[in-house]
Design goal:
single chain; 259 residues; mainly alpha; two-stranded parallel ribbon; 2% strand; disordered C terminus; binds zinc ion; iron ion binding; oxidoreductase activity
C-alpha cells in the first residue's frame, strides 16, 4: 500500500513537472517569437524560475498523488465519472465554483504574504522575478507552494466535480498561471478592456501586481480586489529593451505591505 501511494505521488509529480515544462515552454517560445531578444537578458532569472518551479512540482504532486490513489483505491473524494451522476448544469457550475473558491483562498493568502514578515519568509522568491517570464508560473518558495498545492486536493473532498471538469479546472489554472506572467496580453484588446476584463484577471492586471506589489492580489477574478479597494487597474508592460534589467523602485522592503 505504501509503495502504491509513493508511486502515485511520484507519478503525479512527474505529470505536474512535464505539464509545467510544456506549457511554460510553449508560451516562452511564443514570447521569443513575438518579441525577439526579450528573454535573452533574463537567462539567469529563467534558470532560477525553472529551479523553484520544479521544486514546486513535487510539492503539488505529492498531495495530488495521495488523493488520486485514495480516489482510485479507497473511493475517497467527491470526484465522479458518470456524466449523469449530477444534473448537467452542475458541470459548468462546478467549474465556476472551483475557480471562485480557489480565487478566494489565493486572494487572502496572497494578501497575508504581502505583510513584511510573511513576504520575506514565503513570497519574496516569486517577486524576485522582475519582470516575470512564462517560466515563473510555479516559481514559489516551498512554503508558498504548499498554500497553493492543498487547494484542489481539499476541494475535491467537499465539492462534487466530474473528472473531466476537474481536468478543465487544472487546465485553466495552468494556462492562466503561465500567461499572466509572460509579459504580453494574449487576449484581444476588446476583451481585456471590455466588461469581461473588468472582472477577469489577465496578464496586464497581474503585471501591475509585479510592478507595484501592494495591489491586484487576485488569481482569476477581480471581485475581491474591487470589493477590498486593492484593484489598481491594468498595468503597462515594460518595453522589451528594459525588461530583464530590473525595476529599482518597487523593492519588497518598502512595498511589501498589505495595500
Ligand atoms: Zn505572479
Ligand atoms: Zn505577490
Amino acid at each position: 500500500m505504501t509503495a502504491a501511494i509513493i508511486i502515485s505521488a511520484l507519478a503525479m509529480t512527474a505529470i505536474v513537472a512535464v505539464r509545467y515544462l510544456i506549457s511554460s515552454g510553449l508560451f516562452a517560445a511564443l514570447t521569443a517569437r513575438r518579441f525577439p531578444g526579450r528573454l535573452a537578458g533574463q537567462r539567469r532569472q529563467i534558470l532560477r524560475e525553472l529551479g523553484w518551479s520544479l521544486a514546486s512540482a513535487a510539492i503539488y504532486g505529492i498531495p495530488a498523488g495521495v488523493v488520486a490513489w485514495g480516489w482510485q483505491q479507497r473511493g475517497w473524494t467527491r470526484i465522479y465519472t458518470g456524466i449523469s451522476d449530477y444534473p448537467l448544469w452542475w458541470l459548468p457550475l462546478s467549474v465556476v465554483i472551483y475557480l471562485l473558491l480557489h480565487d478566494t483562498w489565493f486572494y487572502w493568502t496572497h494578501r497575508l504574504m504581502h505583510r513584511p514578515w510573511w513576504f520575506k519568509q514565503m513570497h519574496a522568491v516569486h517577486h524576485a522575478s522582475r519582470p516575470p517570464t512564462a517560466w515563473a508560473a510555479m516559481s514559489f518558495h516551498p512554503w508558498e507552494a504548499i498554500t497553493g498545492a492543498v487547494v484542489i486536493p481539499v476541494l475535491v473532498f467537499i465539492v462534487p466535480i466530474h473528472v473531466a471538469m476537474l481536468g478543465l479546472v487544472l487546465t485553466i489554472m495552468t494556462i492562466m498561471g503561465v500567461t499572466n506572467h509572460m509579459g504580453w496580453e494574449m487576449f484581444p484588446r476588446r476583451l481585456v478592456h471590455g466588461p469581461l476584463g473588468t472582472w477577469m484577471i489577465t496578464a496586464s492586471h497581474h503585471e501591475l501586481h509585479h510592478q507595484k506589489y501592494r495591489c491586484n492580489y487576485g488569481l482569476y477574478f477581480r471581485f475581491w480586489d474591487h470589493l477590498c479597494g486593492t484593484d489598481k487597474g491594468l498595468g503597462q508592460f515594460a518595453p522589451a529593451r528594459t525588461r530583464g534589467l530590473g525595476h529599482g523602485d518597487a523593492g519588497p522592503r518598502r512595498s511589501a505591505r498589505v495595500g
